[in-house]
Amino acid sequence: VLSSSLPRLVREFVAQNNTSQIKHVIQILSQEFALSQHPHSRKGGLIGLAACSIALGKDSGLYLKELIEPVLTCFNDADSRLRYYACEALYNIVKVARGSVLPHFNVLFDGLSKLAADPDPNVKSGSELLDRLLKDIVTESNQFDLVGFIPLLRERIYSNNQYARQFIISWILVLESVPDINLLDYLPEILDGLFQILGDNSKEIRKMCEVALGEFLKEIKKNPSSVKFAEMANILVIHCQAADDLIQLTAMCWMREFIQLAGRVMLPYSSGILTAVLPCLSYDDRKKNIKEVANVCNQSLMKLVIPEDDEMDEAKQLMTLPAEPASEESLSKPEAVSSGDSEVDTTALNQLLSFPCSSERIQVTLNLDGIVQVLDCHLHDTSIGMMTRIAVLKWLYHLYIKTPRKMFRHTDSLFPILLRTLSDESDEVILKDLEVLAEIASSPAGQTEGHGPSDGADVRPSPVELHVPARAGQPSSSGTKGLECSPSTPTMNSYFYKFMINLLKRFSSERKLLENRGAFIIRQLCLLLNAENIFHSMADILLREEDLKFASTMVHTLNTILLTSSELFQLRNQLKDLKTPESRNLFCCLYRSWCHNPVTTVSLCFLTQNYKHAYDLIQKFGDLEVTVDFLTEVDKLVQLIECPIFTYLRLQLLDVKNNPYLIKALYGLLMLLPQSSAFQLLSHRLQCVPNPELMQTADSTKPGAGYKRTAASNIDYTELLQHFEKVQNKHLEARHQRAGRVEQLDRRVVL
Predict the structure, then answer these.
(1) Among candidate residues 105, 122, 144, the one where a domain is terminated
(2) What superkingdom does the record give (predicted)?
(3) What is the pLDDT of residue 406?
(4) Last residue in a domain, options 395, 429, 446
(5) Mean pLDDT of the chain
(6) 721 pLDDT exceeds 70?
(7) Residue 726 domain-assigned?
(8) Scanning 351, 580, 705, 728, which has its CA 20 to 30 A from the CA of 396?
(9) CATH code at 431?
(10) How many CB atoms lie within 10 A of CB 39?
């Protein structure tokens, strides 16, 4: 009856334009059959509704709601055969109605998305036929309601069912291919879901999702001006930290393109981007692709920071630059900093981004606080790799170069970790760390009022600094301003002296650092900063150091560097002649600290050609406690005399008449040495000293002939000698005290 009489009856009603009767027939088919409790009745109702739709023809569009709703209800039927009949019935209804079904697209899509995951293969096959038909209709039509569909797509895209995911991706690919449908405008709504689908266990689904994301990225490159970069920045930040390699690589590739296409639009999200990118820089070859893309992201982001970012106060800054491609909508989402939280960080809501299309200008605020916080956290994290630490230090150096005024607001908080980083195992890390510290110590911005110590009074002892108590007759720590900024290096700021104090504190607390890296660190600093200021300030600090043993060790280290390092060639030449007031002042400053170590004091006198004073010092050695360490240092000094650095000294041995105290000083060293290889070496050298009578020439008998080095003016050598005796007496007292404590301890052990 349904197959023959119903279509004829419906056609008659259509011919009569009897809509009430048509609705009545459809209602009966729906209520009494399709929604019946009896399976056979439901089957008949579905067949009847399909037949009714065919009979209605083009007029079926007027009754689609009444025709579709009962069929969709049967999609949830427990009987798989009825679900199949429902698919077949809806297929016939849609086939007849064609474009008229688009107003009902959302309910159709919702029903199909459920059938896509149906366990029955026949039902799934039937739903696929219906799905293809619906896709053809959408592709052909220009009346698709994308705005109304997006909320449903956003909801369904988070399904965990593989078939449902495949269904979703297939529809996204179809919508992308339709020229009249601009899905790119709504990409922020579905991008997160796409990246989650990219992590599906099915290779086929992952491949489909890759294709979809690839198509979107191509479209972004073609039309960057219509892309809402800022609305998707945090989504990419989250997925750039994914555990799945494919998700992470894809998100990182998107981030690379976003930074290059959007430019400074991405700056407000810099801290989140760095949180995601920096750890990737230490990946091994197993994740080489991710590492390479992350490196490009890092470099591109760094280039976006410019000197103009330092010009105005951060709270009021409105940087105006030529616009990069961006959307016309206001973008104000803040950055996501935390790697474990997918929610947007509301602390950055005050970041202002606006894109006025009329003037084509862009206003961006650099959130330096957030960037520095991320960099600081990475430096504190001991588990991060070497390349990440290097990248962090490069960022800090770059920020100090581009935005020094703002960076010095963070220097006090960064300073301790930068000092601790000097203990890093990697030489490359230490080199970059020294570059940052050197920039802090030499930047003119560091002298600005309110950024750290502006005079010596601020360089006072603290828990993280050397204790340098003032002594009678010596300038106090509050009088060190001249050392912080000497006339020869006007760029040295108030952080320079603070740096020197804390560096020596580091060496004092970590003797292995001094032994293994001390010379390396100081030599590099002499390249990065002014060598004279470094030695002058360290000597001044060591002069008031209470740990005399450390002071002696540190002076020996500095002296070895001074005498042997190629980096200090100019400083050695400056000290060799003592022709200028600055060089004489430096000599006196070094001498007073060098007195902590008798042998280094003599070597300094040899370097500065103060041979008479060197001889006077060696005469005082008879009153000192001669230990194995003392003799070892004398041995090393003899070895140094044979080095190229003291070539001029050896040549002066030819002029016996004008250098008697040089020969006496060398003989004094010889008398101190036991019969050893050093003794033999120096003895052979002195045996080569010519007889002064044999060296007489016609010219040498003339008045003023030959060269005689006179003592440098304005230097009180008597006072220097007294200072030497005073320091050595303190060292002797300290050794006796240590020996006494050891003896008491031994007695307690015996008792």
Answers:
(1) 144
(2) Eukaryota
(3) 93
(4) 446
(5) 84
(6) yes
(7) yes
(8) 351
(9) 1.25.10
(10) 14
Tally of structural domains, the chain: 3
Q: How far apart are CA 281 and CA 564, in angstroms?
A: 38
Q: What is the CATH number of the domain that holds 104?
A: 1.25.10.10
d(CA 197, CA 148): 23
Q: Per-residue DSSP letters for 374-409?
A: HHHHHHH-TTS-HHHHHHHHHHHHHHHHHSHHHHTT
Q: Which residue has the higher pLDDT, 351 or 193?
A: 193
Q: Mean pLDDT throughout 434-449?
A: 85
**Closest to 732 measured CA to CA, from 482, 549, 524:** 549
Residue 260 confidence (pLDDT): 96
Q: Is the pTM of this model over 0.85?
A: no
Residue 517 has φ and ψ, to the nearest 5°, of -125, -5
User: Please, how many CA atoms are within 13 Å of residue 552, restricted to the half-sphere of its CB?
Assistant: 18
Mean pLDDT of 719-725: 89
Report if residue 152 sits inside a domain: no
> How far, in whole angstroms, is CA 208 from its chain's centroid?
34
The distance in angstroms from the start CA to the end CA of the chain is: 120
Amino acid at 689: V
Helix (H) or strand (E) holding 319: strand 319-322
3-state SS of 501-531? HHHHHHHHHCHHHHHHHHHHHHHHHHHHCCH
Does a structural domain hold residue 65? yes
Domain of residue 731, residue span = 597-691+713-750
Residue 566, domain member (yes or no): no
Q: Report residue 425 as tokens.
A: 């195992």
